[in-house]
Amino acid sequence: MERVLRDIISEGCTRIYCVHLSSKLSAFYNVMKSVTERLKEEFPSVTFRVIDTKQLSIGAGYVLLKLMEAVKDGREDLEKVVQEVNERIKIRFSVLEFDYLMKSGRVKTIKECSEIS
């Protein structure tokens, strides 16, 4: 990703928005934060914004559309935009197999969930 950002900078971009899937489900957000911190030192005139959509799938796409509108309108409070959009999003899904989700640690076992509630 650092190479991609360097290419974008070499094209003359001075504001870079990196919009990612939920940081709770992917390490990519944290990786990008680290990369942009390094690049900020080398390119102080470039503004980097790394944004966690706190969503997956179509929810992340919807957040991205709203962020694009906000940037176009000149808004700077992008984290607030994400929060406002997420307050309105309700996504439900179903899966055929839970085994892989549990093995990956993405979801708790049914026993753990019943102990929490």
TrEMBL record:
Official protein name in the record: DegV family protein
GO terms for MF: lipid binding
Keyword annotations of the record: Lipid-binding
Source taxon at top rank: Bacteria
InterPro entries: DegV (IPR003797), DegV_domain_contain (IPR050270)
Metal-binding recorded as keyword: no
Keyword 4Fe-4S listed: no
